């Protein structure tokens, strides 16, 4: 019998790709999502990739009774991957209470139910935003946790504190927080990918939608940062590499002898690219010319950040397999597919 892993936000961008990786590694993903920032079409794509329909529950992770019903029905869960958080920096600045409610309460509900039903292993979806604007680069796991630049980043800091405190209390919980940098790309089949509802909050969907003619132009937020070309620098990691890191994280927890254990691990490529570098690389791999303009800085944006991934290499035995070119090529293939579907009705 395959070990079951509960995947909250399982129809989301990272969650769906991680479900594929889990299945390939011999696990049975049990998906939960409320479609707040995802689509039922993702489940169709997953079914095509996996050649079966994974177990799915439509539920809000802040709804304790709904989540408890899932824990009751899906007995023998071996672990949880918690993705179900709001993640748009700009929106969090405008609607901070929405972010505090969803991102904190969903984790608290999960931790309560995990203890009640004897589920001890948790991989938590954290973020490099916990570092704020770092003093030195690349960022290591020992880099200071500075004041967050947005309520979104602050919720990730608080969630990490909650996990640390829960483990320090001696309860039976083994958790690792993966501090993601910037996930990009799509499954190479183009059957699943990033599918933002409404106006995208991330760079790559804006790039691909502009190239596809769905948006008139792309706005680059700021050109006066202290970076090689004045635009923000980020560490862009292919979503399939990120998905694989979750499998390695579970193996790491499984091999840990302690009953109470907590760790944090950066997950990135170890190098940074400016926004303009991403645009030029996309134009090169897609053959498309992008219409873009320079706009003012965006509130909450960090100037530059990229990861030191030495710890991920060492403790997870993990390293990236895909380049930025690979990620942008897969993103464009995914965008072409969904654009064609929309045109064909």
TrEMBL record:
**Family the entry assigns:** Belongs to the NAD(P)-dependent epimerase/dehydratase family.
Q: Which Pfam families match?
A: GDP_Man_Dehyd
What NCBIfam families does the record tag this protein with? galE (TIGR01179)
Entry GO CC? cytosol
Gene Ontology biological process terms, A to Z: galactose metabolic process
Q: Which GO terms describe its molecular function?
A: UDP-glucose 4-epimerase activity
Query: What is its quaternary makeup?
Result: Homodimer.
Q: Look at the named UniProt entry and state the broad enzyme category this protein falls under.
A: isomerase
* UniProt organism field: Cesiribacter andamanensis AMV16
Q: Give EC number(s), comma-separated.
A: 5.1.3.2
Protein name (Swiss-Prot/TrEMBL): UDP-glucose 4-epimerase
Per UniProt, which keywords does this protein have? Answer: Carbohydrate metabolism, Isomerase, NAD
